[in-house]
Design brief:
heterohexamer; A mainly alpha; C alpha/beta; E alpha/beta; C: alpha/beta; Rossmann fold; 2 domains; E: alpha/beta; 17 helices; binds NADP nicotinamide-adenine-dinucleotide phosphate; binds nicotinamide-adenine-dinucleotide
Chain lengths: ~100, ~100, ~375, ~375, ~450, ~450
Amino acid sequence: MEVYIFLTFILMLSVILGFELIHKVPATLHTPLMSASNAISGITLIGAIVLAGKSADPQMATLLGAAAVAFATINVVGGYMVTDRMLGMFKKKGDKK
Amino acid sequence: MEVYIFLTFILMLSVILGFELIHKVPATLHTPLMSASNAISGITLIGAIVLAGKSADPQMATLLGAAAVAFATINVVGGYMVTDRMLGMFKKKGDKK
Amino acid sequence: MLIVVPKEKQKGENRVALIPEFVKKLSRVGARVAIEASAGAGAGFTDDSYREAGAEVVTGIEASLKDADIVVRIHKPSSDDLASYKKGAISISYLDPFNERGLIEAMGSAGVTGISMEMIPRSTRSQKMDALSSQANLAGYVMVLKAAAALDRILPMMMTPAGTLKPSKVFVIGAGVAGLQAIATAKRLGAKVTAFDTRSVVAEQVQSVGAKFLHIDLGETGQTKDGYAVQLTPEQLEKQKEGQKAEIAESDIVITTAQVFGRKPPLIVTADAVAAMKPGSVIVDMAAETGGNVEGSRPGEVVVTEGGVKIIGTGNWSNEVPRDASQMYASNVFNLIDEFWDEEQKRMTLDFDNDISGCVITHEGELVNATIRNHYQPDKG
Amino acid sequence: MLIVVPKEKQKGENRVALIPEFVKKLSRVGARVAIEASAGAGAGFTDDSYREAGAEVVTGIEASLKDADIVVRIHKPSSDDLASYKKGAISISYLDPFNERGLIEAMGSAGVTGISMEMIPRSTRSQKMDALSSQANLAGYVMVLKAAAALDRILPMMMTPAGTLKPSKVFVIGAGVAGLQAIATAKRLGAKVTAFDTRSVVAEQVQSVGAKFLHIDLGETGQTKDGYAVQLTPEQLEKQKEGQKAEIAESDIVITTAQVFGRKPPLIVTADAVAAMKPGSVIVDMAAETGGNVEGSRPGEVVVTEGGVKIIGTGNWSNEVPRDASQMYASNVFNLIDEFWDEEQKRMTLDFDNDISGCVITHEGELVNATIRNHYQPDKG
Amino acid sequence: MALSSLIGFSYVVSAALFIIGLKMLGSPATARRGNTLSAIGMLIAVVVTLLDQGIVDFRYIAIAVAIGAVIGAVAARRVAMTSMPEMVALFNGFGGIASLLVGWAAIAPDAGGIVLTTIFLSILIGGVTFTGSLVAYGKLSEIMPGKPLMFKGQAVVNSAVIIAIFVAGYLFVQQPENLSYLYAAIALAVVFGVLVVIPIGGADMPVVISLLNSYSGLAACAAGFAINNNLLIVAGSLVGASGIILTNIMCKAMNRSLSNVLFSGFSKVKSMDMKIEGEVKPITADDAFYVLEAASTVAIIPGYGMAVAQAQHAVKELQELLEENGAEVIYGIHPVAGRMPGHMNVLLAEADVSYDLLLEMDDINPRMETVDVAIVIGANDVVNPAAREMEGSPIYGMPVINVDKARTVFVLKRSMASGFAGIDNPLFFKENTRMVFGDAKETLSHLIREFG
Amino acid sequence: MALSSLIGFSYVVSAALFIIGLKMLGSPATARRGNTLSAIGMLIAVVVTLLDQGIVDFRYIAIAVAIGAVIGAVAARRVAMTSMPEMVALFNGFGGIASLLVGWAAIAPDAGGIVLTTIFLSILIGGVTFTGSLVAYGKLSEIMPGKPLMFKGQAVVNSAVIIAIFVAGYLFVQQPENLSYLYAAIALAVVFGVLVVIPIGGADMPVVISLLNSYSGLAACAAGFAINNNLLIVAGSLVGASGIILTNIMCKAMNRSLSNVLFSGFSKVKSMDMKIEGEVKPITADDAFYVLEAASTVAIIPGYGMAVAQAQHAVKELQELLEENGAEVIYGIHPVAGRMPGHMNVLLAEADVSYDLLLEMDDINPRMETVDVAIVIGANDVVNPAAREMEGSPIYGMPVINVDKARTVFVLKRSMASGFAGIDNPLFFKENTRMVFGDAKETLSHLIREFG
Ligand SMILES: NC(=O)c1ccc[n+]([C@@H]2O[C@H](COP(=O)([O-])OP(=O)(O)OC[C@H]3O[C@@H](n4cnc5c(N)ncnc54)[C@H](OP(=O)(O)O)[C@@H]3O)[C@@H](O)[C@H]2O)c1
Ligand SMILES: NC(=O)c1ccc[n+]([C@@H]2O[C@H](COP(=O)([O-])OP(=O)(O)OC[C@H]3O[C@@H](n4cnc5c(N)ncnc54)[C@H](OP(=O)(O)O)[C@@H]3O)[C@@H](O)[C@H]2O)c1
Ligand SMILES: NC(=O)c1ccc[n+]([C@@H]2O[C@H](COP(=O)([O-])OP(=O)(O)OC[C@H]3O[C@@H](n4cnc5c(N)ncnc54)[C@H](O)[C@@H]3O)[C@@H](O)[C@H]2O)c1
Ligand SMILES: NC(=O)c1ccc[n+]([C@@H]2O[C@H](COP(=O)([O-])OP(=O)(O)OC[C@H]3O[C@@H](n4cnc5c(N)ncnc54)[C@H](O)[C@@H]3O)[C@@H](O)[C@H]2O)c1
């Protein structure tokens, strides 16, 4: 039980923090920001890793975990890289001014 | 050990949140804000309560706890009330405009 | 269709009723234009420039007048002029229809279609033909320049090493088109401007050009549907004079533009109000030529009172900036012709369903304008 | 100490060298003031107002002049006047010392202390006594008003139902005190203003009143320590004329204020530049009376060229706003007397350690001013 | 330090990096560094997780990571700049399916009710995110038709699916061992994802993706509860919360409410035969700001109301801010605007607006179609399309400034009152018009501060 | 639900209330409600804590709470409005001692190293906060002399105490059973609190209190670790972090850096014989804003630089914002300001500044002493006190606008360059002058946005 209280605490704090952080973002940053936070949501990867590595036998859970790892990795790697590309463009546009 | 990780998580989140919250406060609110957060810091009260109630024998810890309760209560009760008085004044000043 | 523009005959008149720009536009829609030689000289338009624009420049205009389908002038034609017009010709000019009964009847009997630029209705749509507005607007500007030139002080405030010069105070009475432009111009030059008008909607308009409105409680005043002022009752006029007194006395410049449509302008600044002003102060009476808002103003003259106050009654204000004034008048005339232009027949055809035809006074021998008919024969209706 | 203010004799002069406000201040520090009857009339100050301020109003001024310790005027005294001054009297007025050798020598021999208002140094501290600046400032304003009145157009832009009137273009050559005020005034009235000056620091000043600076590369130009312009070489002048050409041709109003301290003003607008302007355009030559910046300008007159360009050379500009001009001149004079006032002895005592004494030309029979001495006898040093 | 603490504290560090990274992503100057920090946080988290003693076999992990990384990297590198949005949608979908799989894999025979509930949520949200994102991808890449897809009885079907999901969820938590409930839940989630997104138009997809992104955060969060992992919770809820806010901001920038975006498709089916003309759409200055901020051509049309409010200085200030923001600003001056000829000129000259920016009606009208936002400041008659459209109108035939041809029109006035001519203005009811009610000067000051 | 979970979840709620309360306290409109929410959070926390099964005896608690509540309530009610700051200091001190006591009471024979460390921190920070606050209280209520108290060798003593604290801490954690280390630590903490605050001047006390407040938050946080309590950690670290930020803001509003506040006392001892005249104190527009915001009379002195920057419209805008903020704004126009007579008048009229606000030099100078902030906008010669003070100066004797007599002077210019007269300006080096470098218009725009 105790653990859930901690988790709830963390949840509450993170949610408020999330709201506070994205206060007023200029429209030009909407897409990169969305894309970056999308990459962050690929954090499931670490859950997947644990599940995928749980046993050497290709059990159901292991396979599911491995699939999850693959998908999450696409999300993470692709997400960060795409964001970086977008922001790179930005930089150039900003510099021109 | 596990517990400390949770606590650290919570600490990290709260500290960042604290920084985020008090971004740009008008000078007129400095004193009330200080006073209110001072009252919040009286939260030690709940720690003190647990310690003060731990046993019926007036052990060292109990006495210390009771003293802590008294001091913390002053801090909490006085702090919130003073803040409220200050903010009350404010209201009136604001209304005149 | 031949449009003829005679040179204005009135003394000192520099404006011209059409400028090359609009000659060109008229030619483009299919009209011929003939203009009297040197008609545009006073406004800075050479005969050559008219020729380039496609007009015929004529030395003796009488011959052309005989053929003219439309005659465009600024000032009203004389009865003699009318004699040479052909039947059915259209005459466009100021007509002063409320006072020129004789002329209008002559037009009627000559079978000339008389259009009065004063009678263009005051609707949003017809504003582009409204010469009263366009010329009044320039008048507002000119009156301030004249007043500033006559004043022994400068208008703006200046804090200088040789002391502070306070801003001059300007009081504008009547804030119609001319009044508003006068306010804006005086404001631009840095004066402290106050204004008054009997129509209550004007208060906001005055503030919208950055000046102060003087509130005088006159009771009910009202305005016509065309936005013109309604005549005040004698009591109201008295209240107004009383209410303005202090403001006039402490003003360096007073500009009066009060008009009541179809009537003599009200006399609103009396001799004792003038006497209370500082020596060296200036009054501009826009209405001096038509009766005057200011006691003691003389049409066409600058009067200096015993108390050292200058009353400027020059009149014909927009004539001081003849180039712009001609451009605007010509634009108004062009828009009017264009409104009734029949593209196929390439001629001007009056359409009496169009509101704007309210400016037509006589047509085919008849006095068609109801307002004017009413004015001459109030009982007949 | 008796301060005497004669009425100005120059034709058309409306200003007066002292106004009641400063008479009062002078009385307060212990001076007596005598003023010729009706001296202040042109500027709007009655004899009564002087009396109230504590002055003696005198009808025949000659008697008072004999007793005068200080004589204050605007224009220089005549040699005849000098005859009646007592020895040691102080004369304060414009003197035109670079050109009035005879007069100054007469002063010297009469033992009169001659102070020239033109020679007040141009330091921050002495600005309050600087009549050249204070009058030039008003001149800037007046020139624009005159030009606007003479122009056949209005200055501001107007987008109206009768078409758009483009803003007039004003070009100001020479952006010293008068030029800057002219720029600011034209700008206020809504004109599109460009300016040029040979001194490079002026570009920023022009922009600081919201106008555009015309950049012409003349090479090294420079200015004196007093901030006056240095004379251009003939080549530079040629370059300037070339560079201005296009701007002048498309301007509606050109105002010239170029001066070189102690010399004849440069001729910078030639007849062909004038000819290239549109008919109806206006030129104001501030320097017309002292030689002229514009070819064809005539002192005190308005010339209309063949091409229809008006060249205004009226001169004595600040005299058009005599009330403010008198106030500022009087303030300058008062500040000057006050600077050298000895409170205990209640008299004006010149102190040659004070920079401002640079305005003293003759003292105790000597030509004490080095610049002027140098100007007359360049070799002697 | 014990390994588990090392992992734990490293997670704290990763979480902090995510937070800081997100914050930095909110400002153009720091965004790129923010993204890098966030990626570093992710790297740390992955690396320390591999140290987990529960992991006995790295084979599958290695293969899966390799496959995922290659696909992700290639896709990210290859995609054309213009196709970024659909790529993000696709990635998002993968995040969703990952959550679904993790939830599924986490099912343990001994799991309690809470764990099972969170597992179910993880599967449900993951599934919805997955197929929803795929549909969004399809619409954006034009594999599917972009326009809202609707069918009769859609509302009924949707409701049925929702109820079924609840039922399946309940049964699953009660009898986790009965796999058919699990499969049913998965199937329903997947179907629901499709149903939710198809009735939304292609133009609204960015908002949908942002919302689904927020969901994928929530899915991760639920997975975190299921497998008892802090970092998943922190990261997931950060993404969830910031995603919601971002969605909201995007809606405002598009001049829409979230519910309007999500349910407009549905409601249209119901109201097919209702007339929805004549609706006035007010907007706050705050929201107007978002639209202005994204505009690259802005036309300002002043009228008498600007004069009354004496707002000319504020107008100039806004112009400068818009220009700094990279927009082109022009003014359209109608010849009869105001109450005297040249009224607007006097005021704008006072505020030192350059003459070159003032366009006559005939010059601005042809350009109007390329204008992103036309701001009508206290003008009424001079922008009244009735002059063009309504034969009976007293101003019919008078040329007006055709602001209604601009992409978006903001009308700043105090009320719905008519102007000098006393006639109603159909402009206020046009699809692309937003009314910003209030004194013009105050509204402008508000906008100006938003730019701060 | 189990009792412990109830308590746990209630703590989550209290924490959320604290957070929301704090956020609301940041804006005048919501501050009071924020305070109430925060108090409700506290009430909930206290009530549920009483349900804790560890509590076997309520007697002491009841008595202690009663005493504390009465004292707190009476003190809060009685205190004069003007003595609020010292009251807050006192309350803060009580918070500190409470932390100290909690730490002390939490010492258990079986405690591990981490727990002991946190206990020690709790005691240390609590002690410092306690006596530090008491000294601050003394200085504010003028029981003690307000001026910085310094003595020879202060730095040495301080260093010695710090070292001793470290040593005591180390020994305490190693041998918690040896109470003498504990007492030593307490004594040192208490002494250190006094030492830290006495060299700081009375005027700087608000900053010190805010800082000590932040410390008391940290102490609570440490106590939370010591007794393993989430809520203490959350609340404590919130207070700690927000306190630091607030301290920083207050420093800026006072035109000081934090280290300058804390150590100015110390450094003065060292640099007694150094001349510190002639120091230029630049300040950013951000920081200038805080000072302006608190000002109730502002004088604006424009000069040629305002004209060059064409900043007149921005000046007017700032004037309006200041007025909205409740300040009185006047302009002081020097007769020779600018480069032509009446230069400032032309520009200010263009920006529509009311003539009534323009004061001549002779009218503004007598009022200057009552002016909180004089903003010199691109003026130089006309505000040069050398004209009054330096006999040799070429402008000696010329009357100038005596801005240096105002409480604070901001000089907006681009550099230290001299003006038209080409002479240096001692104003820039005065104690109460702050230079805001940069183009005047940009600086003003910046300030204007800060007001948004
Ligand atoms: N230019 C001329 O020479 C001249 C002369 C006389 C008449 N007119 C006529 O005036 C009209 C000019 O057209 P227009 O579009 O400029 O003006 P308009 O049609 O009169 O409309 C002005 C609008 O401004 C709004 N307004 C007033 N005060 C405001 C404030 N403080 N803040 C925000 N909005 C405010 C009013 O709506 P709310 O009340 O809802 O705020 C009103 O609808 C034409 O019909 C023209 O014919 C022109
Ligand atoms: N009023 C007249 O008729 C007249 C005529 C001629 C001369 N003067 C003389 O001019 C002087 C007027 O005094 P003042 O105090 O107004 O001006 P000032 O002494 O010339 O000083 C102006 C200051 O403005 C600063 N500045 C310039 N551009 C700026 C910008 N864009 N943003 C911010 N600051 C800017 C300059 O410093 P930075 O370069 O560091 O920015 C300069 O020190 C007096 O000495 C007077 O005698 C007056
Ligand atoms: N809609 C349009 O197209 C259009 C065009 C032009 C003018 N107008 C409106 O028509 C109205 C009249 O304009 P105008 O300038 O031709 O008017 P005008 O020349 O007839 O009169 C000038 C002003 O004098 C005022 N006045 C009358 N008696 C007065 C008195 N005793 N004291 C003070 N002021 C007095 C009138 O109210 C008017 O404002 C204005 O409101 C103007 O805005 C409308
Ligand atoms: N410090 C003070 O107190 C003070 C007081 C008054 C004036 N000033 C300064 O003194 C300077 C001169 O002022 P002024 O108005 O008496 O000057 P001025 O009357 O001697 O000359 C007028 C202007 O003509 C310019 N000029 C000369 N030759 C020219 C040419 N060929 N083409 C174009 N322009 C030419 C000059 O540069 C000057 O700006 C100004 O910079 C003014 O700011 C200073």
